[in-house]
Design brief:
Helix content is 28%, strand content 29%. The chain contains eight helices and eleven strands. It has helices at 52-62, 68-80, 95-103, 115-123, 157-163, 181-187, 221-229, 239-246; strands at residues 13-16, 19-22, 27-29, 36-37, 85-89, 107-112, 129-132, 145-151, 164-175, 204-218, 251-264. The protein has an eight-stranded mixed sheet with strand order 4-7-6-5-8-9-11-10, with helices on both faces. Strand 1 and strand 2 (19-22) form a beta hairpin. Helix 1 (52-62) crosses helix 7 and helix 2 packs across helix 3. The radius of gyration is 19 Å and the shape is globular. The structure holds S-adenosylmethionine and zinc ion.
């Protein structure tokens, strides 16, 4: 876990036995799954970020490969960039970090605020390294990453700019205009398209923006439900509308990912 900084004093950390220890002797144990919890103070033991059910649901859905076109697209960008260090910001349960770690030569580091997400990510044993941390204080040195990926997650641009080296890139992904359109058509009488925006990020310049689209067929009500639970619609839909989706045996829908590549100035 070289190049990681102590979250308490910001000095370098090194592996000592089964812990990461900084020059001022702050020490963080490596959990049996292989991840390190770098949250400090009152937040360290608390259950923050996404919970166990959300984490398991996300993992079982993504492991079926429904979003593989996005994972492949990310690998193409990383290979084209010749990135040797990739940072997965808010990595969730590690599907993309694993895919990148197995498909490219980059060393992959992922972090997330949710201990449960990070635990599942580390259990994948993909060669990627994971830690529990808040994106408002990413425990890596300045210019740590050649490329950072940021998928369906909140922004903290100042920290992202610090963590990515000059000339490196941030690949930020959000749902595209037509993402899950047929699912939305099932749920709502007048569905709206998602907005595709290009936020101005201090320290970065937008270089490229494009969509990765693919049709998927969800082959069981369980898969449809798992995907539905990963969306914000799950929390804003009436029970009667939820029933419309639950009654389907299969659902074919478009997936549409909006990719923005920002160059670090
Ligand atoms: C919608 S999930 C996306 C996860 C993953 N990037 C993916 O696409 O599968 C958003 C993730 O952001 C994490 N998160 C939210 N706020 C965070 C913060 N302040 N610092 C680090 N992670 C955070 C959540 O725990 C959750 O795993
Ligand atoms: Zn320290």
């Amino acid at each position: 876990m070289e190049k990681l900084l102590c979250p308490v004093c910001k000095k370098n950390m090194a592996l000592v036995g089964s812990s990461l220890r900084c020059e001022s002797s702050h020490s963080f144990d490596i959990a049996k799954e292989g991840y390190v919890n770098l949250l400090t103070g009152s937040k360290a033991g608390a259950s923050t970020g996404d919970n166990k059910d959300m984490a398991r649901c996300r993992k079982s859905f993504l492991d079926k490969g429904y979003f593989e076109p996005l994972a492949k697209g990310l690998c193409q960008i990383i290979s084209r960039e010749n990135a040797s260090t990739v940072l997965d910001i808010c990595c969730g349960e590690g599907y993309y970090a694993e895919y990148i770690s197995r498909s490219t030569s980059a060393a992959v580091y992922g972090f997330d605020l949710s201990k449960e997400m990070v635990r599942l990510a580390a259990k994948r044993k993909s060669g990627a390294r994971f830690f529990v941390a808040n994106m408002s204080a990413i425990p890596v040195g300045d210019g740590f990453a050649d490329c950072a990926i940021h998928l369906f997650a909140p922004f903290c641009e100042k920290e992202f700019a610090r963590a990515v080296r000059k000339g490196g890139c941030l690949v930020s992904v959000c749902p595209g205009k037509t993402h899950l359109w047929q699912m939305k058509q099932t749920l709502y009488a007048t569905p709206y398209e998602n907005e595709e925006d290009n936020p101005v990020l201090e320290g970065f310049e937008l270089e490229e923006a494009f969509n990765i689209k693919a049709d998927i067929t969800l082959t069981s009500p369980e898969d449809t439900d798992a995907l539905f639970r990963m969306t914000p619609y799950y929390y804003h839909t009436s029970e009667s509308d939820k029933q419309k989706l639950a009654s389907l045996q299969t659902l074919t829908t478009v997936t549409d990912f909006y990719i923005r590549i920002y160059r670090r100035k």
